[in-house]
Specification:
2 copies of one chain form a homodimer. Chain A is α+β, with helices and mostly antiparallel strands. Helices cover 60% and strands 14% of the residues of chain A. Chain B binds a DNA duplex through helix 4.
Chain lengths: 103, 103
DNA sequence: AATACACTTGAATAATTGTTAAAACGTTCT
DNA sequence: AGAACGTTTTAACAATTATTCAAGTGTATT
C-alpha cells in the first residue's frame, strides 16, 4: 500500500529535489565545474573565473546557499575563505546530463 | 581567454540548469521514477500512483512542463494520453545523487 | 446530438528565488 | 589605533515558479 512507504519515499524525493534546486542555476553549475577542476578556490578567484559577470556579493550568496545545503564546505585562511565540494560524486551529474539527448 | 569559449560554455550551463530546474520538484521526480519503472503511463494513473496528493490538473501542468523541456514525450490513445521519458539516461541522476553523502 | 470521460488551458494568486546595494565583520598591515 | 582587504549579512525589490479553480477541447458512448 501507498501508506507504508509514503513518508520515507516522499522525504527522499524532497531531499533530492532540494539538492537539484540548489544547483539548478548557471552560475552555481559553473562554480561546481571550477571546483571540480581546482579542488578549492577563494570567493574572489571564483568571481574572476566564472563565465559570467558576478559581483562578489552575489558570489557569496551563491556559495552560502550551496554550503547551507551541504553541497560545499568552506575553510577560512587569513582574509580569504576557500570553498570546495563536499562530495565530488556530485560532479557525475554533468556526465549524466551530457549523455542525454533532449529535443 | 575567457571570451573565446564564453558563449558556448554559458549556453551549456544554462541548458543544464534548465533541465535540473525542470525536474527539481518532489512530484516531478516521483513521476520520473514511476515512468522509469513502467515505461509509459496515463495522466490519471500517474495521479493515483504518485506518493502525494496531486489533482489531475496539477499533474497535467507538471507533465506539460516536463514535455515542453524535452524531458518527456506523450502519445494519445483514445481519451487517454500516455507519457514516457524521452531519454532514459536521465534516470541515472538518481543513482548519482544517491551515491553522494550530504550531511 | 447529448452526456460522460480524460485531459489541457488560462488566469489569478500565493510562494519562492534571484538580484542589488549598502552596511557590517573579521583579519592583516602600517 | 586606523586603513585596507576579503567576505558576509541584511533588507528591499524584481522576477520566476507553484498552486488552484473554472472553463475549454477532443474522444468515445448512448
Amino acid at each position: 500500500m501507498k501508506n507504508t512507504k509514503k513518508n520515507i519515499s516522499v522525504r527522499r524525493l524532497e531531499q533530492v529535489a532540494k539538492i537539484l534546486k540548489t544547483i539548478a542555476h548557471p552560475v552555481k553549475l559553473d562554480i561546481l565545474e571550477l571546483l571540480g577542476e581546482h579542488n578549492s578556490l577563494s570567493v574572489s578567484s571564483l568571481c574572476e573565473m566564472v563565465d559570467s559577470d558576478c559581483e562578489i556579493s552575489m558570489m557569496s550568496h551563491h556559495l552560502a546557499k550551496m554550503k547551507d545545503n551541504g553541497i560545499l564546505v568552506s575553510e577560512k585562511d587569513g582574509k580569504q575563505v576557500y570553498y570546495s565540494i563536499a562530495d565530488r560524486n556530485l560532479l557525475k551529474i554533468f556526465n549524466c546530463i551530457d549523455n542525454c539527448n533532449f529535443d
